Amino acid sequence: MPLNAVLLPPLVDRSLHQKSTQSPQNEHQNQNQCNIMTVPLKDDDDRINNNRRKRKHKKKHAKNSEEKYAADNICDGDIDKIRIYRAAEEAGLHSFGIIGVDVWLLDARGESFIHYTLWVNPIFRAQVKGDDLLDRVELPSHPRYVVPAPQVPGAGLAGYFWSLGWSECTTAASSSTSPQSLQQSSSQLVWRDLSAIVSDPMQPPYERLKAMSEAGFGKATGLAFNIMGHRGVVIYLARPTACEYKLNDPTNVYYLRTAAQHIGTASALTRPRLDSAPQERNALNKPFVG
User: Fold this and answer.
1) Which residue among 19, 48, 177, 230 has its CA within the 20 to 30 Å range from the CA of 253?
2) Rounded to the nearest 10 degrees, how much is the dihedral formed by the CA atoms of 67, 68, 71, 73?
3) How many CB atoms lie within 10 A of CB 238?
4) Best CA proximity match to 260, nearest among 200, 202, 182
5) DSSP, residue by residue, 21-45
6) How far is the C-alpha of 200 from the C-alpha of 60, rounded, in Å?
7) CB 176 within 8 A of CB 169
8) What backbone phi and psi angles, to 5 degrees, belong to 236?
9) What are the residues facing 227 on neighbouring strands?
10) Could you report the per-residue pLDDT of 215-263, keeping only the tens digit for each?
11) Are strands 100-106 and 113-120 parallel, antiparallel or unpaired?
């Protein structure tokens, strides 16, 4: 043995030593506690597994659907479409009871509303029986896609809600409105039943509205915006069984009104961005003079 060798004491398993020092009665009690803690009830175990499977399925389907439909809506890489689509998405995801956000813009001559984008809640899409119904109103690439025809003010959902909110929209655009006063003016929104509009003989037929009703959209309300002369309507869609009392909660209404103005601002940024792009390119091409 080398002189500099060091003799180490043998390793001792302290857990075994401590276990052996316990009395048989304590060991029996510990064993019972372990059995109680490690063996769950069958009903609880089934419930946990079912909830886990549902969450996993919803998350997977929502992720795949969101990537599919978002890519189909903004496939051309237009940053203006992406910006407005993301604003509509944010409005729908953080509100209560909203399963769809439909954006309509008033043309430069103020004669008709042109459809711009539609955002659909991915969880609602996963629950719809038959994706073909939603594809008809959401995906322009679908062979049976229902083209949203322009709507004149006073007709259709966009025109109807524009006529309701025009006075409020004009007041908000001509005066500085504080968040406190905007929240106080958040009166209850007017919700319309889509199936009742479709079956109303006094209403002109509108194929897209019928397709939206068949896809599962039941109720709608609209908020007009006027951002520095850029005008339009944001239509919020809810389920047929949605409780209007909860939809018209003051906090939810305040958020929906503010989100509609945010969507309008995102849309109003398009023209200034297009006008400033050539000047920016020309400035970058010029040599820098110190």
Assistant:
1) 230
2) -120
3) 24
4) 182
5) HS-HHHHHHHHHHHHHHHS--HHHH
6) 40
7) no
8) -95, 135
9) 230
10) 899 999 999 999 988 899 999 999 999 999 999 999 999 999 999 999 9
11) antiparallel
